[in-house]
Design goal:
By secondary structure, this protein is α/β, with parallel strands linked by helices. 54% of the residues lie in helices and 15% in strands. The radius of gyration is 22 Å and the shape is elongated.
């Protein structure tokens, strides 16, 4: 089990997408992906029903006919883990062969950040129990969660969760990583000073590096040049800062300032 954390637009979703599309992983696992696009959960019932929906989709993917886990939870939410454990046992009994299930959950902060401490602890307990399956059974469950850095203050409250989940913190790109990303555009040759300047102005954020890189490439195409100088970087940044109404950079900075960061 793993927990991937990082600030907004650090590539967490891309990591989960890469995992879900990897040929070797797809050959070994049945993969179920989930991304919470709605407003964050404010009740344990909402969060548990979401988990039930994820496993209902898994059952359909496995071509197993079984009643809805989401519905079971709705009827007896107080039983919590007991209901989920029994449903998983029922699912396992219907599997024709050994099955490995990989569950990828994005936007995990929306599952727990607004819950009260007791409800949050129950959710973390359930997630820990999901992959604690009997050895030699037909079903094994692996879990990768992804969310904003602030969920660490919540997950640290559960020692059991902390011990079970390996945490990967997606940091800002260092100069070497930024250099590789910037130079991945083969149509532009970047002056080393320009690369350093882009990385510094973007704060190592890969999404912002890409935004600036695309605007720089567009400017150079208009100028009929294929070599980027530090002066080009400065002019693109000034143009973005002067254009608050339609600037993608401004829009992204506003996105970073949203609640939940």
């Amino acid at each position: 089990a793993a927990l991937v954390i990082g600030r907004r637009r650090r590539g967490k979703t891309s990591i989960l997408q890469t995992i879900s599309q990897h040929r070797d992983i797809r050959a070994r696992y049945t993969i179920i992906s989930d991304s919470w696009e709605d407003i964050p959960s404010r009740s344990i019932t909402t969060t548990l029903r979401r988990l039930g929906n994820v496993f209902d989709r898994a059952a359909r993917r496995l071509n197993v006919e079984i009643d809805s886990l989401e519905r079971r939870i709705e009827l007896d939410v107080g039983a919590g883990w007991g209901v989920i454990q029994q449903w998983i046992d029922d699912l396992t009994a219907k599997l024709p062969s050994e099955t490995r299930l990989l569950v990828l959950i994005d936007e995990f902060q929306k599952w727990i950040s607004l819950l009260d401490p007791e409800s949050r602890a129950r959710i973390l307990y359930v997630l820990r129990g999901l992959f604690n399956r009997p050895e030699g059974g037909r079903l094994s469950i692996s879990l990768i969660l992804s969310g904003l850095s602030n969920i660490r203050e919540f997950t640290r409250a559960s020692a059991d969760f902390e011990n079970a989940f390996q945490v990967f913190n997606i940091e800002a790109f260092n100069l070497s990583e930024a250099d590789s990303l910037i130079r991945s555009n083969p149509t532009i040759e970047f002056d080393t000073r320009a690369v350093t300047q882009i990385r510094h102005l973007a704060g190592g954020n890969p999404f912002l590096i890409n935004l600036l890189g695309n605007d720089i490439a567009a400017r150079l195409r208009d100028k009929g040049r294929a070599y980027c100088l530090p002066e080009d970087v400065g002019r693109v940044v000034r143009a973005q800062l002067d254009d608050k109404d339609s600037s993608r950079v401004w829009s992204f900075l506003q996105y970073l300032l949203k609640d939940g960061e």
